[in-house]
Specification:
This protein is largely without helices or strands. The protein has one domain. Helix content is 8%, strand content 0%. It starts with 40 loop residues before the first helix and ends with a helix.
Length: 48
């Protein structure tokens, strides 16, 4: 099975993001919710 991925822009190359990609992980299978990457506590803190 083939697929596509895109980091920083939609697959059709419109709407480029303005920001930074912190981390990416590719797997050959679907992950469970517990296996997904977690945001670092500093980034996950509520905004004041």
């Amino acid at each position: 099975m083939q697929g596509h991925s895109s980091i920083g822009v939609r697959i059709n190359k419109v709407y480029w993001i303005k920001g930074a990609v912190l981390m990416a992980r590719m797997t050959l299978r679907v992950l469970t919710l517990d296996e997904l990457l977690k945001l670092p506590a500093k980034l996950n803190a509520p905004k004041q």
